[in-house]
């Protein structure tokens, strides 16, 4: 992240012609460069800017706070969610009860891939869970995000093309640049040798994405709060994600 980059968000109270031009001209007078601008929520507009110094952003905040046609919402160093909001034109939905959980629908797969790719680039994010019913695009999203993040993906367990259950890895496959994909249902009905491999991967703090994390946690010693991020993927916004299936019923899953 650039040290002189800021995120500015305001709500339009009086939508009149020339309003955006006035704000852009103000930024130009303060020698603030607009990098990206987009609507982020109904009457709200988000802008990524590059400032020459702290004084410029302080002056901008002071002036914008006095403009009657708008209400200044945020001026801050941009977060990942800020960047994605400007890029895609809307904020990603965060679960109010569980802030590290984010919800999407199938028609937002492009945003899912972009969001997941950014998480895979982040060195602080090691363990990610993806909830969702069969054929909603979980595995495909992980693979696509790995490509976007310039990471090599490796199936530890999966049923994408055929059932895959790895009991060991070659030495060269232990690589911090890899993304390890685990199907939580397949793995929890597998052998102790396979589960030992999963424990080894997670203990090494390697980038790991687990599908069906709730079922995985039900059948292992891991807890859901050990995941850095949980992504929920649904066909429709109100679709219920079944998290308590017996692993023997895996025929229902992809």
Structural account:
The chain contains eight helices and 13 strands. It is an alpha/beta fold and about 250 residues long. The strands form three sheets. The chain has a seven-stranded mixed beta sheet, sandwiched between helices. It has a four-stranded antiparallel beta sheet with strand order 2-3-1-4, with helices on both faces. The chain is elongated and about 65 Å long. The relative contact order is 0.14.
Summarize the topology.
Elements: E1 5-12, H1 19-29, E2 33-41, E3 44-50, H2 54-64, E4 70-76, H3 80-88, E5 93-94, E6 101-105, H4 109-121, E7 127-131, H5 138-148, E8 152-155, E9 157-158, E10 164-165, E11 178-183, H6 184-188, H7 192-203, E12 208-211, H8 213-218, E13 229-234
Helix pairs in contact: 3-4, 4-5
**How many angstroms does the end-to-end distance come to?**
38 Å
Estimate the strand proportion. 25-35%
Strand order of the largest sheet: 5-6-13-7-12-11-8
Residue ranges: pLDDT <50 for 5 or more in a row? 247-254
Work out the helix count: 8
Q: Report helical residue fraction.
A: 25-40%
């Amino acid at each position: 992240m650039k040290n002189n980059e800021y995120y500015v968000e305001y709500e339009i109270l009086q939508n009149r012609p020339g309003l955006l031009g006035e704000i852009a001209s103000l930024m130009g007078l303060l020698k603030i460069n607009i990098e990206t601008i987009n609507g982020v929520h109904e009457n709200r507009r988000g802008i990524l800017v590059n400032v020459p110094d702290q004084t410029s952003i302080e002056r901008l905040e002071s002036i914008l706070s006095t403009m009657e046609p708008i209400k200044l919402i945020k001026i801050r160093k941009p977060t990942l969610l800020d960047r994605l909001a400007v890029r895609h034109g809307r904020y990603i939905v965060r679960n109010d009860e569980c802030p590290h959980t984010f919800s999407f629908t199938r028609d937002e797969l492009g945003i899912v891939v972009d969001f997941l790719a950014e998480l895979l680039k982040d060195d602080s994010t090691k363990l990610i869970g993806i909830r969702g019913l069969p054929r909603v695009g979980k595995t495909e999203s992980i693979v696509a995000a790995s490509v976007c993040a310039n990471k090599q993906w490796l199936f530890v367990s999966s049923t994408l093309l055929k059932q895959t259950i790895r009991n060991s890895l070659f030495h060269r496959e232990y690589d911090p640049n890899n993304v390890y994909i685990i199907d939580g249902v397949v793995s929890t009905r597998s052998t102790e040798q396979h589960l030992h491999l999963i424990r080894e991967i997670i203990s090494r703090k390697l980038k790991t994405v687990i599908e069906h994390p709730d079922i995985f946690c039900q059948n292992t010693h891991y807890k859901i709060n050990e995941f850095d991020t949980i992504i929920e993927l649904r066909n429709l916004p109100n679709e219920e994600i079944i998290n308590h299936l017996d692993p023997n019923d895996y025929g229902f899953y992809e």
